[in-house]
Write a structure and sequence with these properties.
By secondary structure, the protein is an alpha+beta fold. The protein folds into two domains: 3-40 and 203-453, Creatine Amidinohydrolase, CATH 3.90.230.10; 69-191, Creatine Amidinohydrolase, Chain A, domain 1 (3-Layer(aba) Sandwich). The chain has eleven helices and 17 strands. The chain has helices at residues 3-13, 17-20, 42-67, 136-150, 171-180, 183-186, 193-201, 205-225, 238-251, 322-340, 348-361, and strands at 72-78, 100-107, 113-119, 128-132, 155-157, 189-191, 261-265, 290-295, 298-299, 302-303, 306-312, 365-368, 371-373, 405-416, 424-435, 440-442, 451-453. The chain has a six-stranded mixed β-sheet with strand order 4-3-2-1-5-6. Strands 12, 13, 14, 15 and 16 form a five-stranded antiparallel β-sheet that branches. Helix 1 (3-13) crosses helix 10 (322-340), helix 8 (205-225) packs across helix 9 (238-251) and helix 10 (322-340) crosses helix 11 (348-361). The two termini are 30 Å apart. It comes from Pseudidiomarina aquimaris.
Length: 454
Amino acid sequence: MKTLIKTLVALALTSTQAGAWAQPAEQGRVIANADNYSVLSYQDRIGPENRMLTTRLTELLPQLMAETELDMWLVINREYAEDPVYYTLVPQPTFAARRTTMLVFNRLADGTIERLSVNRYPLGEPYESAWAGGELDAQWQALADLIADKDPQRIGINVSRDWPVADGLSHGLHQRLQEALPEPLEQRLVSAEDLIVRWVETRTAEEIEIYPQVVSLARGVIAEAFSNRVITPGITTTQDVAWYIRERFAELQLPVWFMPYVTLQRKGQGCTDEQPFCGQSDKTIQRGDVIHTDVGICYLKLCTDTQELGYVLNFGETDVPAELKAAMAVGNKWQDHLTDAFTVGRTGNEVLEATIAKTTAESMITSTYTHPLGFYGHAPGPTIGMWDNQGPTPIRGDWPLYANTAYAIEGNAKVPLAMWDGQNVQIMLEQSALFDGEKVTYIAGRQTQWHVIR
């Protein structure tokens, strides 16, 4: 066994084992179920979502447009081909771009932002209608006249080679915009990708306040699923548990952004140091199994991405084996090395490099693939490793860390178990966290103790 693993396992197996585990890793939190957390109806979500949008447009957008040196930002899309960033900018309830929808953000001399719409159907607050009604050619001419009247020097449009979220202006609309503008104005069009990434990755004080409720709901449903409420050892399959999670979120009116999945690990299955993932799906859960899930929901426009672990007690066992507790501690230690490397201005690639240096020095077998969270589960911002690339990630890995950004602290550590004849168990963890510019705080705590199925 590696040096660190030996130390942790020895600690877990000492005669003072109970005392050793009395203090779990920092920020550990156990959430028993989702029943203790309120979920607003769809109707009741409209007010808070729109208030948060207005705050973002009033306070955050002026700051970011100044930071990225844009005088105007155009968001142009149409029904059935909505721009990815469109839904982060419009009031609820909004289900589509009506015909061709044009949003114009114009920065004034005092730094404030005019929020204008050039649409067949006015959007209403928080937008002022600069033109409404009429036919499509008149709409494009109205947009061109508006831009000419405002005379911006740098006009941001949503085109990007490297950031999908910033590439929402379709080819056809891009062509139409170029045709509508006189050449001097057309020459002022620039990519708005820096603005869009900053807009999507930045969390406001209001969003930070509600985010723990969102993440707690995700963790609560996992706790329900990884319990005897759902699992009967020897009968329940991993697919049964995955569908419980999916249907429970539907019952709570919480949309998932990917199908939850559940895998298991067990003695004799094999898990080499080089294997990227060791879990198996479509299996019947048995006693002695380690189970794992990956879950993502969105609520009040904020998304989560969560992975946790459970253990199915063998007949006669009354607690999770000490070796598995030690393995969880290794996973938490990997998380600590990663989050300790968070520094404003440091790139995702630099955070990854610092994390690998730490884990390598302690002979840990780890893999880091952490990403930002927010309006999307896989949000833009600094990529910190990828499961199939533990080296630098061009472009997205070069993006620096900013304050008030959220992340899925995602990765795994492999730990050999004597109880499994030296076979590795893979501790796959993913917990939502906020970086305030100084420290990383888990939004609803993190898993430091195993879910137990008896």
